Amino acid sequence: MQNLPLMAVPFVIYLIIHFIFGPAVFANVILTIPMLSGGAFAMTLGDLMLVLGLALLFVEVIKSTRFSNSAVINHMLSTLTTVAYLVVFLLVGGTATSVFFILMLMSLVDVLAGFSVSIRSASRDVSFNGGGMMDNGHNP
Q1: How much of the chain exceeds pLDDT 90, in percent?
Q2: CA 127 to chain centroid
């Protein structure tokens, strides 16, 4: 479960809602809050999907700071998720919406940030002495 790229969650939820109710449902207002200024804050289903995507992107970036075999698998699956977003965006009718496009960009940011953070973290774990060999404190 820890290898599952979390950006796949909004991808699957979006497609389920899209195929059951159609793409227009993402413009439906699901929450309205009156403001002190007299205006009203309205949140659509599409907005809620973006908030979900941002929250999961944050968790993915935190997950990318660990370095293990499972992190490498997570990076590969995140890359496949981004490719799946792109393929669906280009080939499935009705998914060429701004909400789906922004979710796809979040998935791309997940991949780029994950690789960048992992590489940066891994480079801090490696230290070399003047001869270019790892120095673990034990000389032969």
Answers
A1: 64
A2: 31
Tell me how many degrees the CA angle 13-17-21 measures, rounded to the nearest 5: 180
> How far is 110 from 116, CA to CA, in rounded Å?
10
- Please report, for the chain, the start and end positions of each structural domain, with discontinuous segments joined by +: 8-124
Best CA proximity match to 110, nearest among 27, 36, 25, 4 = 4
Please tell me whether the overall predicted TM-score, pTM, comes out greater than 0.85 for this model.
Answer: no
Which whole number is the average pLDDT over 55-59? 95
pLDDT by residue (tens digit) across 12-50?
999 999 999 999 999 999 999 999 999 999 999 999 999
Give the number of other Cβ atoms within 10 Å of residue 113's Cβ.
15
Q: Which has the minimum average pLDDT: 78-82, 97-101, 102-106, 131-135? A: 131-135
Angle at 23 between CA 78 and CA 80, to 5 degrees: 15
